């Protein structure tokens, strides 16, 4: 190191020193900012399967969709599918998508394992992103049986 008479850095080296320290401190601040931002995004991120599962709940717990509702008491039986409602027209009216952006949304194919009946939304093109397995009850003309609903979810094309 080159010192002057007062045991200080020479003016040229002092400027280089502060330039390097300023650059390093700026990089440290940017790095800390980006790490905190990534941590916040990872903390608030939810999996795609959650949205598909919530839409499934809409199908089996809503009497205007597929859920069984007792006529006298108007009680809705959760996770119970009324087979008289298990048709294409009902699924299209229950899960109505805009025609311009329906390929960007979640589309489904539902298969009842034991009864071997299936439904799909209008833009399901057999490109499954994930599959959900749900235990449901089936109401069919006064009889209630247990079945498994297999839900094939297509996120977007």
Please characterize this protein's 3D structure.
The chain has two domains: 1-45; 48-154, no CATH class. Helices cover 35% and strands 27% of the residues. The chain has helices spanning 11-44, 48-61, 88-94; strands at 67-69, 76-82, 107-112, 117-120, 130-140, 143-154. Strand 5 and strand 6 (143-154) form a beta hairpin. The longest helix has 34 residues, at 11-44. The chain is elongated.
Distinctive features:
157 residues; alpha+beta; 2 domains; 6-stranded mixed β-sheet; 3 helices; 6 strands; 35% helix; 27% strand
How are the SSEs ordered, and which strands pair?
Layout: H1 11-44, H2 48-61, E1 67-69, E2 76-82, H3 88-94, E3 107-112, E4 117-120, E5 130-140, E6 143-154
Global mean pLDDT: 84
Number of strands: 6
Largest sheet at a glance? 6 strands, mixed
- Give the helices and strands as they follow along the chain: HHEEHEEEE
Distance separating the two termini:
64 Å
What percent of residues adopt helix (DSSP H or I)?
25-40%
Q: Count the domains.
A: 2
> What is the count of helical runs?
3
Which geometry do the CA atoms define?
elongated
The secondary-structure class comes to: alpha+beta
Rg of Cα set = 30 Å
Low-confidence stretches: none
Measured by DSSP, the beta-strand proportion falls in 25-35%
With strands numbered from the N-terminus, the spatial order across the biggest sheet is 1-2-5-6-3-4
